[in-house]
Design a protein that fits this description.
The chain is α+β, with helices and mostly antiparallel strands. The protein has four helices and eight strands, in the order βαβββαβββααβ.
Length: 156
Protein backbone atom coordinates (compact mmCIF):
# COMPACT_ATOMS: atom_id res chain seq x y z
CA UNK A 1 0.00 0.00 0.00
CA UNK A 2 1.01 3.58 -0.49
CA UNK A 3 0.07 6.24 2.04
CA UNK A 4 0.10 9.84 0.91
CA UNK A 5 -1.05 13.25 2.03
CA UNK A 6 -0.32 16.96 2.04
CA UNK A 7 -2.99 18.49 4.30
CA UNK A 8 -2.90 18.76 8.09
CA UNK A 9 -0.42 16.82 10.22
CA UNK A 10 0.38 14.13 7.67
CA UNK A 11 2.96 12.43 9.90
CA UNK A 12 0.31 12.04 12.61
CA UNK A 13 -2.19 10.81 10.00
CA UNK A 14 0.30 8.14 8.87
CA UNK A 15 0.95 7.02 12.45
CA UNK A 16 -2.73 6.78 13.39
CA UNK A 17 -3.65 5.20 10.07
CA UNK A 18 -1.12 2.42 10.64
CA UNK A 19 -2.66 1.69 14.05
CA UNK A 20 -6.13 1.45 12.49
CA UNK A 21 -4.83 -0.69 9.63
CA UNK A 22 -3.24 -3.14 12.03
CA UNK A 23 -6.56 -3.51 13.88
CA UNK A 24 -8.84 -3.61 10.84
CA UNK A 25 -6.73 -4.95 7.99
CA UNK A 26 -3.92 -7.02 9.43
CA UNK A 27 -0.42 -6.69 10.84
CA UNK A 28 2.10 -4.46 9.12
CA UNK A 29 5.26 -6.42 8.33
CA UNK A 30 7.21 -3.80 6.38
CA UNK A 31 7.22 -0.03 6.15
CA UNK A 32 9.37 2.41 4.22
CA UNK A 33 10.74 5.67 5.41
CA UNK A 34 8.72 8.79 4.59
CA UNK A 35 9.48 10.63 1.36
CA UNK A 36 8.51 14.06 0.10
CA UNK A 37 7.70 15.09 -3.46
CA UNK A 38 6.13 17.96 -5.30
CA UNK A 39 2.46 17.37 -5.97
CA UNK A 40 1.79 15.20 -9.02
CA UNK A 41 -0.81 16.56 -11.42
CA UNK A 42 -2.17 19.91 -12.58
CA UNK A 43 -3.50 21.35 -9.28
CA UNK A 44 -1.11 23.75 -7.47
CA UNK A 45 -0.74 22.56 -3.84
CA UNK A 46 1.77 21.80 -1.06
CA UNK A 47 4.33 19.00 -1.34
CA UNK A 48 3.23 15.45 -0.51
CA UNK A 49 4.54 12.95 1.98
CA UNK A 50 4.44 9.30 0.92
CA UNK A 51 5.36 5.98 2.46
CA UNK A 52 4.82 2.34 1.54
CA UNK A 53 3.59 -0.30 3.94
CA UNK A 54 2.97 -4.01 3.55
CA UNK A 55 0.35 -5.86 5.57
CA UNK A 56 -0.68 -9.47 6.00
CA UNK A 57 -4.41 -9.57 5.52
CA UNK A 58 -7.12 -12.17 5.22
CA UNK A 59 -9.60 -9.58 3.97
CA UNK A 60 -10.81 -10.03 0.39
CA UNK A 61 -9.62 -7.19 -1.89
CA UNK A 62 -12.94 -5.31 -2.11
CA UNK A 63 -13.48 -5.54 1.65
CA UNK A 64 -9.95 -4.24 2.22
CA UNK A 65 -10.70 -1.38 -0.17
CA UNK A 66 -13.82 -0.46 1.83
CA UNK A 67 -11.74 -0.42 5.05
CA UNK A 68 -9.22 1.90 3.37
CA UNK A 69 -11.88 4.25 2.01
CA UNK A 70 -13.43 4.43 5.49
CA UNK A 71 -10.01 5.28 6.96
CA UNK A 72 -9.51 8.05 4.42
CA UNK A 73 -12.90 9.52 5.40
CA UNK A 74 -12.03 9.32 9.11
CA UNK A 75 -9.00 11.49 8.40
CA UNK A 76 -11.03 14.08 6.50
CA UNK A 77 -10.38 12.99 2.91
CA UNK A 78 -12.65 14.75 0.43
CA UNK A 79 -12.86 13.63 -3.17
CA UNK A 80 -13.94 16.89 -4.77
CA UNK A 81 -10.89 17.70 -6.96
CA UNK A 82 -9.08 15.05 -9.02
CA UNK A 83 -5.36 15.10 -8.11
CA UNK A 84 -6.23 17.69 -5.45
CA UNK A 85 -4.84 18.10 -1.93
CA UNK A 86 -5.51 15.28 0.55
CA UNK A 87 -5.34 14.66 4.26
CA UNK A 88 -4.79 10.95 3.61
CA UNK A 89 -4.72 8.85 0.47
CA UNK A 90 -4.29 5.08 0.63
CA UNK A 91 -3.67 3.11 -2.56
CA UNK A 92 -3.53 -0.65 -2.89
CA UNK A 93 -0.44 -1.16 -5.02
CA UNK A 94 -0.47 -4.98 -4.97
CA UNK A 95 -2.58 -7.74 -3.48
CA UNK A 96 -0.25 -10.69 -3.56
CA UNK A 97 0.21 -11.68 -7.20
CA UNK A 98 -3.43 -11.07 -8.08
CA UNK A 99 -4.52 -9.11 -11.11
CA UNK A 100 -7.88 -7.41 -10.53
CA UNK A 101 -9.55 -5.25 -13.17
CA UNK A 102 -13.04 -4.44 -11.96
CA UNK A 103 -14.96 -1.20 -11.60
CA UNK A 104 -13.63 0.55 -8.52
CA UNK A 105 -10.52 -1.57 -8.07
CA UNK A 106 -7.49 -2.11 -10.31
CA UNK A 107 -4.63 -4.15 -8.85
CA UNK A 108 -1.73 -3.89 -9.36
CA UNK A 109 -2.16 -0.13 -9.31
CA UNK A 110 -2.35 0.75 -13.03
CA UNK A 111 0.07 3.69 -12.78
CA UNK A 112 2.74 2.46 -10.35
CA UNK A 113 5.29 1.99 -13.15
CA UNK A 114 4.89 5.69 -14.07
CA UNK A 115 5.17 7.24 -10.61
CA UNK A 116 8.49 7.63 -8.80
CA UNK A 117 6.70 8.79 -5.64
CA UNK A 118 5.17 5.31 -5.39
CA UNK A 119 8.08 3.27 -6.72
CA UNK A 120 10.80 4.72 -4.47
CA UNK A 121 9.13 3.82 -1.15
CA UNK A 122 7.76 0.54 -2.56
CA UNK A 123 11.27 -0.46 -3.69
CA UNK A 124 12.60 0.26 -0.22
CA UNK A 125 10.45 -2.51 1.24
CA UNK A 126 9.98 -4.80 -1.76
CA UNK A 127 12.43 -4.00 -4.55
CA UNK A 128 12.54 -7.64 -5.66
CA UNK A 129 8.76 -7.97 -5.86
CA UNK A 130 7.78 -8.98 -9.39
CA UNK A 131 4.97 -7.02 -11.02
CA UNK A 132 2.47 -9.70 -12.10
CA UNK A 133 1.56 -7.89 -15.34
CA UNK A 134 4.99 -6.70 -16.52
CA UNK A 135 7.07 -9.55 -15.09
CA UNK A 136 9.69 -7.06 -13.86
CA UNK A 137 10.78 -6.31 -10.32
CA UNK A 138 9.90 -2.99 -8.74
CA UNK A 139 13.59 -2.09 -8.82
CA UNK A 140 13.62 -2.69 -12.59
CA UNK A 141 10.47 -0.58 -13.04
CA UNK A 142 12.05 2.24 -11.02
CA UNK A 143 15.21 2.12 -13.15
CA UNK A 144 13.05 2.37 -16.29
CA UNK A 145 10.57 4.97 -14.95
CA UNK A 146 10.33 8.08 -17.11
CA UNK A 147 8.88 10.22 -14.30
CA UNK A 148 11.42 12.91 -13.39
CA UNK A 149 9.72 14.09 -10.20
CA UNK A 150 12.31 14.30 -7.41
CA UNK A 151 11.60 11.99 -4.46
CA UNK A 152 13.55 12.92 -1.32
CA UNK A 153 13.71 11.50 2.18
CA UNK A 154 11.56 13.57 4.49
CA UNK A 155 13.29 15.25 7.39
CA UNK A 156 10.82 15.82 10.23
Amino acid sequence: MLLGGNQGNVYEHFSRCQMYLTKQGGPIYARSRIYTTKAWGPVPQPDYLNMAIAIRTVLPPFYLLSVLLDLEKRFGRKRDVKYGPRTLDIDILFYGNEIIRRPGLHVPHPEIQNRRFALVPACEIAGNLKHPVFGKTLAMLLAECSDTLEVKLWKA
